[in-house]
Amino acid sequence: MMEGADDIDLNSDGMEEVHQLSKDERSQTIDLSSEACLVIEISDALSEREKVKFTIHTRTTLPEFKLHDFSVTRDHEEFIWLHDRYQENENLEAYIIPHPPLRPDFDIAREKLQRLGESEGVLTKEEFDKMKQELEAEYLATFKKTVAMHELFLTRLASHSVLRNDSNFRVFLEYNGNLNVRLKNRKEKIGSFFKGLTKSVDEVLLSSHKDADDFFENEKRFLVDYHIRVKEAMKACDKMTLSHKTTAACYLTIASSANQMGTSEATRLNKFLTRFSGLIEKYRKIDNRSAADEDLKLSDILRYYSRDLNSAKDLLYRRTRCLANYENANKALEKARNKNKDVQTAEKAQQAAREKFEHMSETAKQELVDFKQRRVAAFKKNLTELAESELKHAKAAAQLFRNTIAALKEIA
Predict the structure, then answer these.
(1) Adjacency order of strands within the sheet including 19-21
(2) DSSP tag of 296
(3) CA nearest neighbour of 138 among 51, 382, 130, 379
(4) Three-state SS for 69?
(5) What's the 3-state SS for 71-130?
(6) Mean pLDDT in the chain?
C-alpha cells in the first residue's frame, strides 16, 4: 500500500489532471531469500482522466522468469484480462481465484472538485482553502485504495504456490509491451450474460444437493450465512462512516462562523470565540482522521471479503457440480452394465469423473482452510489497528480539550 503521494494538480475547474505515486515513497526492504521468492509491488501509479496506469515492479528468484528484477506498465483492463484467464482455466477449478480489483472510479471526487471550483466566489478564501484541502485528501485516499486493491490482487496470486505458475501470469508480469486487451463486444457480452444466467440456475438446482462430506456441507451453510452477515455489516459500516464524515464536515461551518464573530472587535468575548474556533477546527481534523481510519480499517475489509466470499462460494459450486457429474457417471455406468452396451466407455468416464472429484475435494478442502486462516488473520489485524487508532484519536482529542479549557480560563 502507498505510504505517501504528490499533491493533486488542480486546473482552473478544480479537476485533477495527473496524480502520481512514486516508488521513492515506498519501503524498498524485500528479502528474496525468504520463502516468498516472488515479490510484487505497484511502484508507481499515474492517474489520468480516463484511466489509471500501474507500474508493476517484480523481484523474484524463480527460474521460470528470465530476469530477477523488472517492471511493466498495466492498466485496469489488463488486470481483468488476467483474472478472466484464471477463471477460464479448467485446471484451476479446485482453487479459490481471487476476485478482480474494482474499476477505478473517481467521478464523485471529480464532481465535488468541480462544484467547489464553481463556488469559489461564494465561499470565503478560508472556507474554500479548507474544503479544497479536504476534497484533495478524499481523492488521494480513494486513489491510494484503488492502487492497494490492484496490488493485493497480484500479491494473492504471487503468494499461491499453484496460481503463480500460470503462464498468463508470467506474461502479465514480464511482457514489456501492450497486451492489446480489448473490451468485450456485444456478442461476447450477450454470451457472458447467458453463461452467468445458466450458472445461476445451476447453482439454484444444486443448492439442495446433499453433500455426503460433512466438511463441505457445513462449509457451504456457513459461507452462505456468513456472506449475508458481512454484507449487512458492510452497509451498516458505510452508513456509520458517512455520518461520521458528515458530522466532521459540519465543524467547518461552526469554526468559520465562530472565527468571523471573534474577529469583529477586540473584546474578551471575541478572544474566547477565536480560541473556540481554533478548538473546533483542530477537533474537526482529528474527527476526519478517525472517520478515514474507520473507512480504511473496517469498511474496506468488509467490502473486500464480501467479494472474496463469492470466490469461495464459487469454488464450492464447482465442486458440487463435479460431484453431480460423478454421480451421473455412476448412473450411466450402471445403466450401461444393465444393457451390456458401451460398458468400457462408461467405465472410463466414471473413473475420470471419480479422479477429478477426489482431486478437487482434496484441494478444495485445503483451499477453504487456508481461506479461513487468511480471513481471520486479516480481520484480527485490521480490528486491532482500528482500536489502536481510535484510542490514539481519543487521547489526542482529550488533550486538545484540556489545553483549550485551560486557555479559555485564562481569557475569562
Answers:
(1) 19-21, 38-47, 52-60, 69-75
(2) I
(3) 130
(4) strand
(5) EEEEEHHHHHHHHHHHHHCHHHCCCCCCCCCCCCCCHHHHHHHHHHHHCCCCCCHHHHHH
(6) 81
Condensed to tens digits (0 to 9), the pLDDT of residues 22-55 reads 444 444 444 444 454 889 998 888 877 667 889 9
Residue 383 neighbours by CB under 8 Å, 6+ apart: 297, 298
Query: In this structure, are strands 52-60 and 38-47 parallel, antiparallel, or unpaired?
Result: antiparallel
The H-assigned helical ranges of 160-213 are: 167-174, 186-206
Query: How many CA within 13 A on the CB side of residue 258?
Result: 18
**DSSP class of residue 375?**
H
Nearest to 324 by CA among 207, 196, 192, 200: 207
Residue type, 301: I
Burial of 124 (0-12, 13-18, 19+ CB in 10 A): exposed
Q: Which three cell numbers stand for residue 350?
A: 466414471
Asked if 227 and 306 touch (Cβ cutoff 8 Å), the reply is yes
pLDDT, tens only, 376-403: 999 999 999 999 999 999 999 999 889 8
- Give the C-alpha separation, 46 to 18, whole Å: 7
DSSP-based three-state secondary structure for 52 = strand
Cell 484480527 belongs to: 380
Residue with cell 478564501: 125
Secondary structure class of 42 (helix, strand, coil):
strand
Identify which of 252, 303, 295 has the alpha carbon closest to the alpha carbon of residue 138. 295
Rounded Cα distance between 357 and 363, Å, is 10
According to DSSP, the β-strands at 69-75 and 52-60 are antiparallel
